[in-house]
Amino acid sequence: MKKLILPALCALASLPSTAFAQSNATSVSSRTNSHATGNDAIAAMRDAAMESDTLAYAITEGLTTEIGPRLAGTEAEARARAWGVARLTALGFSNVAIETYQMPTWIRGAETAEIVSPYPQAMHVTALGRSASTGDSGIRAEIVAFETVEQLRAAPMSSLDGKIVYVGHHMMRTQDGSGYGFAGPARWFAASLASERGAAAIVIRSVGTDNHRNPHTGGTNWAEGVSPIPAGALSNPDADNLERMVALGRPVTMHLTLTPQWLGDRESGNVIADIPGSDPDAPMIIAACHLDSWDLATGAFDDAAGCGIITAAAHRILESGAQPRRTIRLLWAGAEEVGLFGARAYAERHPAAEHAVASESDFGADRVWRVEFNLPDSASGDADRITSLLAPLGIPRSPIPATGGADTSPLVAGGVWAIDLQQDGTRYFDLHHTPDDTLDKIDPAQMRQNVAAWTVMLSVMSNSQADLGIPQTTE
Amino acid sequence: MKKLILPALCALASLPSTAFAQSNATSVSSRTNSHATGNDAIAAMRDAAMESDTLAYAITEGLTTEIGPRLAGTEAEARARAWGVARLTALGFSNVAIETYQMPTWIRGAETAEIVSPYPQAMHVTALGRSASTGDSGIRAEIVAFETVEQLRAAPMSSLDGKIVYVGHHMMRTQDGSGYGFAGPARWFAASLASERGAAAIVIRSVGTDNHRNPHTGGTNWAEGVSPIPAGALSNPDADNLERMVALGRPVTMHLTLTPQWLGDRESGNVIADIPGSDPDAPMIIAACHLDSWDLATGAFDDAAGCGIITAAAHRILESGAQPRRTIRLLWAGAEEVGLFGARAYAERHPAAEHAVASESDFGADRVWRVEFNLPDSASGDADRITSLLAPLGIPRSPIPATGGADTSPLVAGGVWAIDLQQDGTRYFDLHHTPDDTLDKIDPAQMRQNVAAWTVMLSVMSNSQADLGIPQTTE
């Protein structure tokens, strides 16, 4: 797929961009082509990004090589903040700052799973975030297998006393990431359901689309009043193997050891950086990513790449010398993976009303395949202009309204408008929350297309004359 | 590649096979089509295997599910032998037996690698077979990096005192497996070279073509008089990361812990099973695979699949009811990975002169893409007949002479003739000796093509009237 599409994109990008911009955007070009923030200037920035951006990759390379995994609340995340401040300052951004907050910090311990009988062999397991510990000696118990979360939910209370529950389910590979909504509940809710029903522990099939021996971590949630139990994910090949064993009909016993621990409240923080706008009264455009990662990998796709993409795009505007009307703010959020602590801390400190539009890059580094808007009618011209300027990148306008990303979700819930440059998620869940999320997975050509798309969106919106204030609800 | 080729193969296989066999093999059909071992009968067995063989997969599924990893000298390998005897007996083979021998047994311990400075983060490492131990507290030392084995060899003696050597090199993806010959020396010889030059330990880039966080194990060799040192392999993404760190120019310190140990001599063994031939004086046809695997995975590709393929092919001949002239012997060898102990034990017990032709399946389960022969002139008709009968499977005759496989190498060295049904190795070194070598990697359609090809080869050779005795050297 990638190989078929990119040459076409590259061929498009190498054509004189005005051929596309003029034919598609005649209605807006007359009033915007006359200055440095006009369509021709934006198209030129877009095409330069598409052809030769190296900054997004360099930031991703730096975070993954010089810092590595960046679990929220750890000193590695703190090093990443310092690295980010140094890099953003050197790039020429203004008001570069760390904004700290405290958050409960969970760290991984030992993690092993062995089938004890009737087919002794080791399996690859990883603890889910907020899992309880088995203690050093582990838990040895019979497996009770469910195919779906609904089947587990249907099991009577106390029916699973002392068992290790297994929930298998299969995640479908989808371009729009919708497979996550289907399979995700096994990670999000099954552990709590198993605990309510008396289980000693739970292992789920990894929520992921790959077939490597790399289990997918991620947070699990405990319902109010439910006691946390040890909760892990098996790699997909191990889940396959366990299902085959269960199908043979004899009782299957597992010895599971997971020894994560809570460290209490530790410091985390957001990194912010601005391109100040010329109109201090105009609400700003916020572009977000998250700086923390899960601990199993260097978080190249999730989400060093997002920080690289938004920063590289904003830096092109900074370097153009044309000051935007509205401030462009970069938010490299902390503590996203473990519960949006950075997002909430940001929203508590910065009122939603200071922001006009929120957008986030947090779905890897593969190409943007559609753009979604949630803007007031007064900004329909901006949306049309972005749509026209994205067309040469092969990006159509989606009929789906934008909903924003995780790190700006409190702002969007507070009424801030949103634009989503949706990335192709076809292979995202091969890598998501696994040890495999490393720099080699980044396709530089697709990453450049992201930077080009973001350059367009930020350029247009930071110069928008529309009323992008938060709408007053009338009750 | 796979998807393009298989429909074509399947289309060929579904045609009446005589259309191909008759046009290509006119010279032999007149004397062989008149009985149950004639070309039509063999083509029919071939096509049935291609269309519906399930035995090869079932054996692979059983070994990987019910036994799992089968490290030589361990009780898991012993369980695999018992499983094999039960299965081969149930299938109706004769003379099913375990032939045991003693061998020095090495087992894996803890294995961790951390960059301590200047970019603290964990890496994925695995010990190479015959590695020494670092002790529980590990070794902390500066990395000295070499791009190739030749560069390491050029380093003066004692120049690496106390260092951890890294050897990076890149293995090329090749269809014929020749990339292994190019990159393999880093695993086979670099540790010994590093020890000679004073190194405290060595980590190499995995000898493999994938980019997953799954390091490739495999044996390393200590030259005469060289003291073993701890020796590990980093996964390819970790090797990339370490190379980037080194390129940044500051000294890089690693903390490496590998605690494998030698258990002394333990029992291993071969499993053999026969289809007795009608002529007890005719040397037999031996078909080999290996039953042991490395300990990191369930050894589906390496080499449960090989045992499945040769056994399924032989079983088709057994089921046909037409007794072959020559005995067909299956050798499920033990202890291949750790040094061909099973192969040597077999050859010590069974004189080469009892064997006419040796062949082995030990390169995964992807399609056979060419056939190689090393037969006397008197058997040129057999080679032609096999070539004709393999053509409908898309398998051409290679000009390269057959050399046989690892588990029959002592026999071939002793003068036994060989036929190699060479498998496509394009993805073999993605999986080789990694945790990823699991059942899901088997493509049942390609596996069936292997069974079909083996059915042809065993059918023809077990009925060969040629003089296949070991040639007498005249000195």
From TrEMBL, chains A, B:
Pfam families: Peptidase_M28. Gene3D superfamilies: 3.50.30.30, Zn peptidases (3.40.630.10). PANTHER family: CARBOXYPEPTIDASE Q, PROTEASE FAMILY M28 PLASMA GLUTAMATE CARBOXYPEPTIDASE-RELATED. Keywords: Carboxypeptidase, Endoplasmic reticulum, Glycoprotein, Golgi apparatus, Hydrolase, Lysosome, Metal-binding, Metalloprotease, Protease, Secreted, Signal, Zinc, Zymogen. GO terms for molecular function: carboxypeptidase activity; metal ion binding; metallodipeptidase activity. InterPro entries: CPQ (IPR039866), Peptidase_M28 (IPR007484). It is found in: Endoplasmic reticulum; Golgi apparatus; Lysosome; Secreted. Homodimer. The monomeric form is inactive while the homodimer is active. Its main location: endoplasmic reticulum. The lineage of its organism: Bacteria, Pseudomonadati, Pseudomonadota, Alphaproteobacteria, Sphingomonadales. It comes from Parasphingopyxis lamellibrachiae. GO terms for cellular component: extracellular region; lysosome. Residues 1-21 form the signal peptide. Residues 270-453 form the Peptidase M28 domain. One of its GO terms (biological process) is proteolysis. This is Carboxypeptidase Q.
